[in-house]
Amino acid sequence: MKSEHFYLVFQPIVKISNKNTLIFEEFEVLLRSIKTQKFPANMFYELLANEQKYNQYIDWFTVELEKKMQACPDIKFSINIDVDQFQFKSTFHFLKYFSRYHEKLIIEITEHTPKNNPKLLIELDDILKKIKNHHFNIAIDDYNEGINTLFLYKKHRKYYDRIKITLFGYKSILIIIGLVIYVNIVKFLFSKKIEIVVEKIDTLRKSKIMKKLSVSQQQGYYFRTDSTLIRSFTDYEYYNNLGDQIVK
Question: DSSP assignment of the chain, as one string?
Fold first, then answer.
């Protein structure tokens, strides 16, 4: 897989301080097609059906991700991994290689059903255990969507350090309120910290509502500008782009 097919963009996961200051200290790595500037869904699913092509892709992704991490050692990154990707040994080799960066890399397990190897869902506990053995923090992505149901979360909750949920209507607000209560109980009873990140924040009003619900980690189009959703950056170039928006 040649690099001219894809590129990476980096969307900020913003932390809002008690003084309502935006803190940019983490970026989610997103895959984009050079041709469409969107997630290349069809091409990615083709990769998942062909081990040789997938291995070429993961080699390219390894090089690109490491370049960004080395250029910005004080920044955390989060990456999406479909359960289907664990059908290939190269995914586990990827995790082993990046274990040296485990403090700066969060693994998000997506909501997509494994189509090529459905039995991977049965093996999910073992997969999550292997990720934890490399000392990564794990996020359940798009909670309450696809395979990432309440049942699945309860079954594997000991492995998850973060819950990501999309803000979409009043029902999602009720779910978020329930999650806030849950993580506070877990913190109080078991001293275990579980983060909540709310996605699809596209207005100031939504951001303020989430902050009032004690959700300070947010992500979405409201925080996306030409200077924060960046295709490439090296040697902290984005600090110059973001200017006063960054709190070091």
Answer: --GGGEEEEEEEEEEE-TT--EEEEEEEEEEEETTTSS--HHHHHHHHT-HHHHHHHHHHHHHHHHHHHHH-TT-EEEEEE-GGGGGSHHHHHHHHHHGGGGGGEEEEEPS---SS-GGGGTTHHHHHHHHHHTT-EEEE-STTBTTB-HHHHHHHGGG-SEEEEE--HHHHHHHHHHHHHHHHHHHHHH----EEEEE---SHHHHHHHHHTT--EE-SGGG--TTTSBS---TTHHHHHHGGG---
Q: What per-residue confidence (pLDDT) applies to 237?
A: 43
Distance, in Å, from the CA atom of 122 to the CA atom of 198, rounded to the nearest integer, reads 28
Report, as ranges of residue numbers, the positions in the chain whose pLDDT lies below 50. 226-248
Domains, the chain? 3-245 (3.20.20.450)
- Partners of residue 137 on adjacent β-strands: 106
pLDDT for res 221: 87
Q: What pLDDT is attached to residue 225?
A: 53
